[in-house]
Every structure is written in structure tokens, then in C-alpha cells.
Please model this.
Amino acid sequence: MEEVIAPFDLHSFAYLLMASPRDGNCGLISNYSSTWTTVYLKSRYQDLDPVIIQAVRQSHPFVWGAGLLPLGQSEGQDRFFAEAAEFGLRHGLTIPIHSDRCGIAAVTFAADHYLAAFQHCVDVHLPLLQLISTLFHRYANRSLRPRRSIGDIALTEREFQCLSWAAEGKTAWEIGQILSVSRRTVAFHLDNVRAKLGVSTVTQAVARFVSDSR
Model:
């Protein structure tokens, strides 16, 4: 992401994934200062961050900065923006991503330079930045939120592991070597997967898995 956005004169980005608007857990990928991200997550700033609050409430992109959001800011949120600015996060563009399956995510591109220049970048490149954000979300979501289900069908951790490796083309024996279990144990878990998915073969189960991952 850092390399992709550099030609737009954007150097800071963050991807925040929340399971739901009220979920206490979140995942973060960014090139922000490690000091800032550590403080952000430990202080649960996602509950206070006016940018995230706005991203939860709407699905279209918006530019933010001190005094720019329409929500009105508390004294604590004013301090939040002032603290973020100390780490070079003075203005930003946030692209909310709302999904029934994945919950809510937000991709943010931040800058420390003059707002007018940043706004010009947004005006010219917004459609492309939205596309970049959607593609990044597609893959980052898999990294931050390990799945344990296919559609509405829940799998055990071991069933999911066996099916994931089968989707990579591994045989039951090879999967057993990877997971340090016997071939018979792998076959047992894959049989359970087939039964849960209502399919006759492992190949059909893998096809369901691959289709659900897209």
C-alpha cells in the first residue's frame, strides 16, 4: 500500500477492521508511527476517534481534520486530533467499507501538509483511491480475521485447517505432516466437513471454500 499511494503524494495510511459498530475488538494495519498505533489500541481510541464514529455512521468517503467533521467534537476529541497531529496525522481521507459478512472497515490516507493540497489530491484521485481501498480490504480482512465458517456453517479450528490445506492442493498425508497428526485424523476431519457442507467429495468441499473466500 505504501508503494502504491506514494505517487499520489500520500505517505501515511491505516486500515482498521471492526466486526461490528459495537465490537470491542479491532484489527489494524498501518504505517503510522508504532508509538501512535500502540497508544491508539491500548487506549481504545477507536471508541473516541471521531473519524471512526463517522465511518460507522456513513458509507461514503469523507475528508477529516480538526473542525472538519459534521458531528461536532467534544473536548476529548479535540485533544485526540491535536495528539494525532503531533504524529503527522493532521488531515485525512477515510473510505468506509460496510459489509454484512465482514462488519465495518475503514481505510484512511493521512497527511501533514496543507489541507488545500490534500483536498486537491482527493478531488483528482478519489475513484482510484476507493478502488485501491476495496482491493486492500479484500485481502487484509483475511489476515486480520481468521475465518472458521463457510457461509453460515461453522467449522472447528482443525476442520478449517484441514480444508484450507486441501484447498492448497495438499493430500491428506501431507496435511497430516503439516499439522502433526495422522492421515486418518485428517480424513476424519475432512469427512466431518463434507457432512456439514452436504457434499459428497473433498473436491466439492474445496470448491465451496474457494467460492466463499472470493
